[in-house]
Design brief:
By secondary structure, this protein is an alpha/beta fold. The protein is about 55% helix and about 10% strand. It has 10 helices and 5 strands; from the N terminus they run E-H-E-H-E-H-E-H-E-H-H-H-H-H-H. Strand 4, helix 4 and strand 5 form a beta-alpha-beta unit.
């Protein structure tokens, strides 16, 4: 494959996973190529390739996070979709901060994988495709109360509800209600959606705003 046509480059140290994902992509009419390690992918010279990269986060020798950092340096035009273990929220946040296009939590449905890949391919074809989404999410963030922003900040730091409740001096039920309200206002169906939405609207700004709040915890 010479990189002249867009393709999906799958990097995973599990041969069964690689085979199944390549087959899935081909079923969808997409070109696909797989690599058993991050080093093998980088050694193949992807600098002029078109398409997107799909990589597992946890791999031997060189992790998916390290691969993401390298791709952003050597082939920044290639969007990277990360696959993470269930509950790896802090790691997923870090991946988005490093520039990942998207991330999926295991176990994921085929339709979710396909949607993430097609989204990354669209991003590669049109770098401005996400501008409208980002502006819309920023508008939604403006509707969050101070309390909701503080709870959001805790979620993005990977804190459990009970931990956030203890630190804020409120009941667990209050934190759960605020968390539900945050997800409703931001249109998020899952924690994964919430993290993605926050990253695209400016994670650092949101976390800094939430962390800067002092004084008694305000009512919802």
């Amino acid at each position: 494959m010479n990189g002249s046509a867009p393709a999906v480059y799958i990097v995973d140290d599990d041969p069964a996973v690689r085979e199944s994902l390549v087959l899935l992509m081909e079923t969808e009419g997409l070109l696909a190529r797989s690599f058993p390690s991050a080093r093998d992918f980088l050694a193949a010279g992807p600098e002029n390739w078109r398409g997107c990269v799909v990589t597992d986060v946890r791999m031997g020798e060189m992790s998916g996070m390290d691969l993401l950092a390298q791709v952003k340096q050597t082939a920044p035009h290639l969007p990277v979709v990360m696959i993470t273990a269930y509950g790896d929220v802090p790691l997923a946040v870090e991946a988005m901060k490093l520039g990942a296009s998207d991330f999926l939590e295991k176990p994921y449905a085929e339709r979710e994988f396909i949607a993430a890949v097609r989204g990354a391919l669209n991003e590669a074809a049109n770098a401005e495709a996400r501008t409208g989404v980002r502006l819309e999410m920023e508008r939604k963030f403006q509707t969050l109360s101070v309390s909701e922003r503080r709870v959001l900040g805790g979620l993005l730091e990977g804190k459990l509800n009970k931990t956030a409740a203890y630190e804020m001096g409120v009941s667990l039920r209050t934190v759960e209600a605020l968390r539900a309200s945050v997800m409703t206002k931001l249109g998020a169906d899952s924690l994964s959606d919430l993290v993605r939405a926050t990253m695209r609207a400016g994670l650092d700004r949101i976390i800094s705003s939430a962390a800067a709040e002092t004084g008694p915890f305000p009512p919802p």
